[in-house]
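Hey, can you fold this one?
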Amino acid sequence: QVQLVESGGGLVQAGGSLRLSCAVSNLAFVNYAMGWFRQAPGKEREFIAVIDRVSSTRYADSLGGRFTISRDNAKNMVYLQVNSLKPEDTAVYYCAAGQSTATTAERFPFWGQGTRVTVFA
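Sure. Predicted structure:
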C-alpha cells in the first residue's frame, strides 16, 4: 500500500520558517512527480509546488516565491521550505504523488494525510 506521511507542521509566529517533509513508501518514488498542496479552513485545496523526477520545479504564481520544493530520491523524501510565514498560510499541507508536473489535485492519485500549519501574528 502506497504511503505518504507528512511531518514538520506546527504553530509558528508570523515571519518564521518551516520545513515540511513527506516520506514516501511502497512507490517507485524516482518515477513520480511530487507535489505540495494546502487547504485552509473553508477553502478549496490549493496548489503550491511540484517537482519532477529530475528536480525541475513549478510553483504557484500567487505565492510570491516564499516556498521551495526539493526531493531526495535516495531517501524517498520530498520537502517544502516555507519562509516569511503569514497568518494566511495557516492550512493543512499535503504532499501528493503523480506522473506529471500537473498543478491540479485531480492529477495526483496518491496523497498523504496532511500536516497542520498554524501561523499566528
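Residues 17 and 74 are 25 Å apart (CA to CA). Let me know if you want another pass with a different chain boundary.
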